[in-house]
Amino acid sequence: MLITCGCQHLKQEMKCNASKSGEGNSKKALSCDDECARLERNRKLALALNVDPEAQKDDHIPYSTETLKMFRENVKWSQEQEREFRVFATDDTEKRLRFKAMPSHQRAFLHSLAQDFGLDSESMDPEPHRHVAVFKTPRFVSPPTKTLKECVRIQSNAEAAAASLLEEQRRLRSNNEAYNGFLLKHLRFGLTIDTLRSDLTPQFNATPGLAFDISWLPTEEIVIKAKPATPWTRIEASAIEAALKAMKAPVAAIVSMNRLAETCQLCTLDASLNILRRGLEDEGASDGWNRVASKAVGPRSAPPQRGVGEKSVYTVLGSRVKDAKRKQEEYKKALAEEVPVDDWAEEVRREEMREAAVEDSGGT
Questions:
Q1: Which of 107, 177, 234, 357 is spaced 20 to 30 Å from 61 by Cα?
Q2: Which phi and psi (to 5°) does residue 86 adopt?
């Protein structure tokens, strides 16, 4: 069990030791110290001066973000618990409030709400009987004047107003700020900044007043940001935009022909390379080059023409292979038809006579 002092500032856990013959420690209490006296004086002073800091700000939210988040998850149940807190807080005779056993996420809401009210809270007993007890302490003055529901509404209105303001600022900024770079999307696999710079350097050199920084974005895109060529050179943003629009067509042509990326478009970048404005893919190209270049294909060459009667090299090679196969088949057939000879000496003599006859016939 938990015993406290009269103002509930000091707390100490003790064994109950209650039995049929005695009350044990159930009625024991701690003595208040100097800190308890100081907190009590501050509370009385705040009540005497009617100090209510929350009332000075209409949009002030006296609850933590975690409390409001848990309230949104279960509004009806949370309102019931808040009502019990307010009844307990406004009753000067009550010093302790016990809640029934409940799951851990509901106990977490009670602890968070108690802290917002300026109350102390403790979880007591093991599961499944674990419950929350709330105590008044000298730091408690009065409950918050706004309910949780009112604060959720104030928070929602503030979030909506902030989102609307941010969108309006982004729209005005994007409409007023000029283009200062190029955005390359759907890049070629294995593309490096050195390769890209090497291919685009001739076009960059054609604009001597500007320098170009090439950087990767976390979105696997590449941005090319234009800036004055020297730190002491001052160029108006409108002049940079005009130069980039003039460069748009040739840069897109190089990107497409070298297969560097699928799309190239104008964009507006801030100092952190955040894209504030994106142009159309064909913006700045009056002749519609991007639409043509994006469909470009490699040059095709016609097959060479042969003269009349000239044989193709494939035909000549094919005929030679065919003749070699035919001779090999004839040789195998002759070997198969050859009759075995019993008398080799007689066969040699006959062969010599045939050769001599051939020589005689050739001589005549």
A1: 107
A2: -70, -40
- How far, in Å, CA of 154 to CA of 162, rounded? 12
At 1 the pLDDT is 67
Structure tokens at 80: 């019931």
Closest CA to 120 of 110, 105, 129: 110
Judge whether 268 and 179 are in contact, CB under 8 Å: yes
Low-confidence stretches of the chain (pLDDT beneath 70): 1, 8-9, 45-58, 169-176, 281-322, 324, 331-345, 347-348, 357-364
Q: How far is CA 224 from CA 257, 275, 277, 280, in A?
A: 18, 12, 14, 16
- Report if pTM > 0.85: no
Give me the helix-helix angle, 75-90 and 104-117, nearest 10°: 40
66-78 per-residue burial string, b: 16 or more CB within 10 A, e: under 16? ebbebbeeeeeeb
Cβ(214)–Cβ(196) below 8 Å: yes
User: Which DSSP state fits 198?
Assistant: H
Name which of 50, 40, 48 is nearest 10 in CA terms.
40
Instruction: Quote the CA–CA distance of 310 and 216 in Å, as a whole number.
Output: 57
In order, the DSSP letters of 273-310 are --EEEE--TTTT-TT-HHHHHTT------PPPPPPTTP
Is there a contact between 181 and 237 (Cβ–Cβ < 8 Å)?
no
Number of C-beta neighbours around residue 122 at 10 A: 15
